[in-house]
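Quick one: structure for this chain?
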Amino acid sequence: MRRKQNCKKKIILITIILMITWILGVYLYTTYTNIEISDSEYEAQKTLSTENEQTVETVEENSTKIADIIEKTTESVVGISKLKSAGNSIFGTSNEEELGLGTGIIITEDGYILSNEHVTGERYSKCYITLEDGKKYTGTVMWSDDSVDLSITKIEAKNLKYIRLGDSNKIRVGETVYAIGNPIGFEFRRTVTSGIISAKNRSIKLEEGEDKSYMSDLIQTDATINPGNSGGPLITPSGEVIGINTVKISSAEGIGFAIPINVVKNVIESFKNTGSFEQATLGIYAYDKEVIPYINSNLSFEDGIYVAQITKGGPSSSTELKEGDIILTIDGNKLSTMNDLREYIYTKKPGDNVILKVKRGKINKEISVVLGKK
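Got it. Here's what it folds into:
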């Protein structure tokens, strides 16, 4: 009897073990067949491979696109000389010193060209222009301003390819830029150099013999700028002009400067719309805080424009404005740089009245000035 019971227990135990083994085997088989390790790894590898291919393609596409943009932009870049070449083009074998060779950019389809005053000469002077296709023109300087070293010259031509203007107020240090110009002579015409915006609102002192002058609110770049590049464009990768190349530091490499394009936009618009521009003036010589250390190391202020000199017989000479005053605002517009003042004055006409908010010591006062003609 006892043997029969033990035998039954053994049979039940073996049956239970077999059932558990079968269930475990089914579970492991089912779980194993549902694991997709290979597919998962393949998908991850495939995505990574695709991203790499897209990255390479994007770099190549961007490079090609930038090259296309620069190629198109150079069509609006011209050569400028103060002297007439004996050859068929100012892009001859003569060098810059012989011809006064410089650069300019076409800003309207009917022949207005923007450059530096030191390239074209002063208002009403003549200069000689060579377009990208080799055509030559005699140009007349219609406007110039030595305080910003800019000029606008007119040639009698139509349907020209003109350059696009950007917004120099939106530029940031570290952004990529390209400088285009005509350094040295024919061999290096329309040279393109690249770099970054190294700094904004730079001020420099220029010395010619005993004469000293100051340029303020400049864009500093390490894109190579040589003497023949003067008047050429400093452009963004999208082909928009954000500055006009003007000078470089001869004692150092990679330090060049450009005049922000925004300062002259109102002048350009006036020539586009009316074919003329009457420049108004306050009749003062003033400097912002960036230039002051060159003039008076004991003077400092945060905002405003320092009145260094009032022109005798000028618009401000008959007002309460005095030398040493700091102009804080003009018609309610805050002034931090000289370009702030220039940009606003370029929107006005001779005879317009402006209100200056002035700081004199601890006293603030308002002074009314009727603008004169420069």
